[in-house]
Amino acid sequence: KKGPVKNPKPVWAPGHAALEWIGQRVSGFALAALLATVANWLADWVGTSVLGYKNSPLSGVPLAIVFGMILCNVVGLPALFQSGLTLCMRQLQRLAIMLLGFRLSLGMVGAIGVDGLPVVVGCIVVALVVIPWLGVKVGLSKRLATLIAVGTSICGVSAIMAVAPTIEAEEEEVSYAVACVVIF
């Protein structure tokens, strides 16, 4: 009589641990990649085929966020995907933000011109001061108002995700801030 096959004790424990770590995250990473791919494809298709543009003016980011919201709130997200999605939301997004920063150079900033630089800096400073103040006045938490301010004034979702851990923002605050910035 044969029973279930037991896994032999691993010979090289670090390699086994690495494979286990990867295995726990692959499904969530694959789900995130699938949502992003479908969202980008749909945005391109709508922009070119439906709206008739040569290059789609639409971004897949808002669609991916909507798909994720529907998936989590309507379908429900099995625990199997959690580790991989957390990896995507934290480590991979931080890496993407760093790579985006490398793309920006002083030459690109200089292309704005010396005359335009005070206007850009002034707008950023005003947004970073006024939006949190106004947000708290209308009843938002200080953290949520700060996230909306950095997302609006600096570089959108990337800025929100970079600042969120430093101000210990709750997941709901991050989600609301991302939704606000993406919608507007």
What does this structure look like?
By secondary structure, the chain is mostly helical. It has helices at residues 13-50, 60-75, 82-103, 106-112, 117-137, 142-155, 157-163, 171-183. The chain is globular and about 80 Å long. It starts with 12 loop residues before the first helix and ends with a helix. The mean pLDDT is 85.
Task: Provide the fold topology.
Layout: H1 13-50, H2 60-75, H3 82-103, H4 106-112, H5 117-137, H6 142-155, H7 157-163, H8 171-183
Low-confidence stretches: none
Which outline best applies?
Answer: globular
Query: Strand fraction band?
Result: under 5%
Between the first and last Cα atoms, what is the distance in angstroms? 65 Å
- Gyration radius over CA: 21 Å
In round numbers, the mean pLDDT is 85
Structural class: mainly alpha
Short description:
The protein is an all-alpha fold. The chain is 75% helix and 0% strand.
Key traits:
0% strand; 184 residues; globular
